[in-house]
Write a structure and sequence with these properties.
Number of strands: 8
CATH architecture: Alpha-Beta Barrel
Bound molecules: SN-glycerol-3-phosphate
CATH topology: TIM Barrel
Strand order of the largest sheet: 1-2-3-4-5-6-7-8
Helix content: 40-55%
Structural class: alpha/beta
Order of helices and strands: EHEHHEHEHEHEHHEHEHH
Largest sheet: 8 strands, parallel, barrel
Distance between the termini: 42 Å
Number of helices: 11
Shape: globular
Number of domains: 1
CATH superfamily: Aldolase class I
CATH class: Alpha Beta
Length: 217
Amino acid sequence: MKFFIDTANLEGIKEAQDLGILDGVTTNPSLMAKEGITGQQNILDHYLKICEISDGDVSAEVISTDFDGMVKEGEILAALHPNIVVKIPMVKDGIKALKYFSDKGIKTNCTLIFTAGQALLAAKAGATYVSPFIGRLDDIGYDGIELIAQIRVIFDNYLFETEILAASIRNTMHVIRCAEVGSDVMTGPLSSILGLLKHPLTESGLAQFLADHAKGN
Ligand code: G3P
């Protein structure tokens, strides 16, 4: 499973990249705003900074919701750097935009996926990635992981090349469950990745090894 980090925070991206296990970055307008990045030029410059840190795919989201606007914005974003993936919302014109970019060989990520039907539509339109939001589904009493499993079956039935990018990951257990049900990618905060390191027996075992080594020296 590929590991993406879901942030626009440059320090966090660098920390994950330095671990050597980072495969890409996802952002959205809320994450950009959280970092205080506003104005079109500043936003474009920030995407470039992210691309300079990460050597994997970097999802950059359009703001428009109409076909012409999404195409115009997406082309500007795609021209920024070869690793940019144009992130398109799951709306009717978004499907048309996914097909447009797919035909041009530009990578896309269809965001705000909450049903298997939405994922199927995006895959048929040639999306490179679909982003089911598992945490937001869990928030309202649905099972986000079950959605990933359902999409996995559908994509495998028809050999869709579209990758499942599990998004709205909130914790380490989400990461593990995504791997169990065969998500191609997960994108989460740095804490969800670093949480994978932890076990009290690892910590106490290491402390014991180091103490025993110190006794013999
Ligand atoms: O990748 C989508 C993600 O940013 C949404 O996460 O935690 O706002 O539901 P969250």
